[in-house]
Amino acid sequence: MKKENFDTIIRRKRVVYQHEKRKRKKLRCIPKDDFIKIVAPVAIDLYSPSNYDIFCRFIVDVKRALFSYKGVYICFRSTKKVTAAAGIVLVAEFDKMVEKFGRHKVKATLPVPDRDKFGNEKRTVESILNRIGFFRLIGKTERNITEAADVRCWNHITGSTADGESAGKILSLVQEILPTNVRKDLYRGSIEALSNCVEHAYIEHSDYCFEDRSKRWWMFASIYYDRLVLIVCDLGVGIPNTIYKTQNESIIKDILDKFGIAGSREGELIKVATHVKETRTKMKHRGWGGQDIRSPIRDGRDANLSIFSNKGRYRCSNKRKLNGDVVPMETFYDNRLSIGGTVIEWSVKI
Amino acid sequence: MKKYIFSKEFTEFPGPRYERLGPYSGESFRKKVLIPIIESGEKVVIDLDGVIGFGSSFLEEAFGGMVREGFERTDVMRVVDNIVCKDDPSLIQEIKNYVVIAYKEA
């Protein structure tokens, strides 16, 4: 390496170090009995890995700040986009934080409206945050604004039992546009996801001792262009942390061998979980749930299944080849950070 | 022959497997409806139409659970053979599969 390149690198590292040092000094200057401002991401999104990391760090920063300071002031002025899965995780996390710390500890500024090509204001992000109940959650009065058209079909619900009526009511809102067999499969998948959340996600294990023992789930449905999106989210221990504690190791090994994967990544373990026949109780008559979670994407439908659980991401969809054959396509990988729970999303063409 | 309309007399929104997980569970349906039908010895048509959908856990616990409770095969099949579902005929075969598998594992 040439000497001048080495000097440039050292100089750059020194600048970064000094910037970080000033930032830490600034934070130490903020009195602990004051609110700290935390800027929300430009894109509140989980689908892109870089946005995923930024969103996870934002949630961690908010949680740390709530422990250390009088409260947090979330600034949405730079936020331009909120996608479905991240939106429901945002509501779930803040729901839990507000329950633990109190509504008075969280404040927020409104997002800045965008302008369309005619110069008219578009308050899409504010509409979304209103629709998913974020401002209501923190006790902020929602403004009376014209709701963005593509947000009108967003609905969400929360609960702590595997309540079929909740899942059913959300699906009833889109009943007319869904074929009966698709609706039945979505209901089947969602009631299985709610059951898993209540039964498995918040296991009472010494490693996962929660003060708050409520087994909450959050469910969301929306119509986005020509697709119905249905999401079930929990803030439990995550599939990768339960699978080896609850399943026979030989069964997991058989499935890993069948697919030719090592099982060292969380995304791989999520895939295994959707194929496992025996569940936590190791009873042979159990374990049909994996099929239920996959049922909305069966029969070659134009549908996707996406699961985020801790760091892992698993995605399965049906791809139509040029010769007309439909083949399932699966991808799985690990992100750098954990979302601290599980998000199961089905997306079906309507 | 008596008729039991599931959607009106039990729920339109079947729940999870066990009572402790949520309302209108498979366990609850078995205890409150199926076992009394078996014990009465009557032939009752169970109509599963008009329901938003069934989880496999619900069906397995309700119908497969009768096998684990120790009921005779003829009694269980008498109940299962009188299930009707015009909305989704494949449900009947699915239920029969759960009963057959439950007997194999008993």
Order of helices and strands of chain A: HEEHEEHEEEHHEHHEEHHHHEEEE
Per the principal axes of the C-alpha atoms, what is the gross shape of chain B?
Answer: globular
- Would you tell me the structural class of the helices and strands of chain B? mainly alpha
Structural class of chain A: alpha+beta
Rg calculated over all Cα atoms of chain A: 22 Å
How are strands sequenced across the largest beta sheet of chain A? 8-9-10-14-11-12-13
| Total count of strands of chain B | 3
Mean pLDDT of chain A: 84
Description:
The complex is a heterodimer of chains A (350) and B (106). Chain A has 350 residues and is α+β, with helices and mostly antiparallel strands. Chain A has helices at 3-29, 49-68, 84-101, 124-131, 134-137, 164-172, 180-201, 239-246, 249-259, 266-275, 289-294, and strands at 35-39, 43-44, 71-75, 81-82, 106-109, 114-115, 121-122, 155-159, 217-224, 227-234, 303-309, 312-320, 326-334, 342-349. Chain A has a seven-stranded antiparallel sheet with strand order 8-9-10-14-11-12-13, with helices on both faces. In chain A, helix 6 (164-172) runs antiparallel to helix 7. The longest helix of chain A has 27 residues, at 3-29. Residues 206-210 and 278-282 of chain A have low confidence and may be disordered. In chain B, helix 2 (26-40) packs across helix 3 (56-68). Chain B has helices at 6-9, 26-40, 56-68, 73-80, 90-105; strands spanning 2-5, 44-47, 83-84. A three-stranded parallel sheet of chain B has the order 1-2-3. By secondary structure, chain B is mainly α. Chain B is built from five helices and three strands. Chain A binds chain B through residues 161-165, 167-168, 171-172, 180-181, 183-188, 191-192, 194-195, 198-199, 284-286, 288-289, 291-292, and chain B through 11-18, 21-25, 52-58, 60, 64, 68, 87-88, 98, 101-102, 105.
